[in-house]
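# nightly structure sweep
# worker-07 picked up a monomer target from the shared queue
# config: single-sequence mode, recycle default, output format = structure tokens
# input follows
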Amino acid sequence: AEAAAEQLQLYRRDPEGWRGCRSTGEVAVSWRPSSEFAGNLYKGEGILPASPQKVWECIKPVAGGLRTKWDQNVKDFEVIETISDTVSVCRTTTPSACMRIISPREFVDVVVMKQYEDGTMQSAATNVEHPLCPPQPNLVRGFNYPCGCFCIPVPG
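# output follows
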């Protein structure tokens, strides 16, 4: 989990190579080739008219959290094992997509939540296997490379 958090910090600090691919008035999505796997990294950025704490409540990876209520790509989120007050092993399930062409998925990740001195909050995760969470027969087991979210306070 700590390695995933550090990797996300490296992505955040390195502005090189990001290319815009989609943008609305609220969100901009960029991508760049990954140096870890044969594919691309993606990041979405936006400024929300809310306090960082309210935004964090919507995105933080906790059981019973708000993400399953607003994110149509997250069907369920459960904590498999709590390692500490900031680290846990979690299982996320996603619904089928594209008129059921894409099968429902499950992801098992070790997740860390951090808060930095400047008020930035971060969740970072990466794939892990866990004996209490064997693959389910009706779901495709997905694999996450280091991924996560930052909630960064902005002036005003």
